[in-house]
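Hey, resending since the last one bounced:
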Amino acid sequence: MDNLERIHQVDAAWNQRDWELYGSLIADNFQGWMNGDSQPHDKAEHLRRGQAYCAAYPGNRIHCDPYLDAFASEDGQRTCTISTVTASSSDAADQRAMLMVVCHWRDGQIVRQRESICTDPFVPA
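The structure tokens again:
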């Protein structure tokens, strides 16, 4: 399995709320940044944030079949995916955003990740 297939597995696990599979694809020494974080967060914080977001927006989904774009570095150790994310909650109208995720992989797990979410109203469907 290559890392583009693995990132698809990560996003499918998110959509299914399979936190065991999701967590198994993230290295214990993970460092992540989201939307301009000045300091990285670790694996435990990454999982906590994901679970909290899914609790607040239980209908959220990463649209990864297909991605808007997905590619890997020549050596396959870095991946980039761009997808549409939809979210809904009982308190808010449906929301749509574009999600870009850049990952550095080692031994089949994400060791570094940068996420950026664009909530521009003109994000493609």
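The chain has a mean pLDDT of 91.

Sorry for the duplicate.
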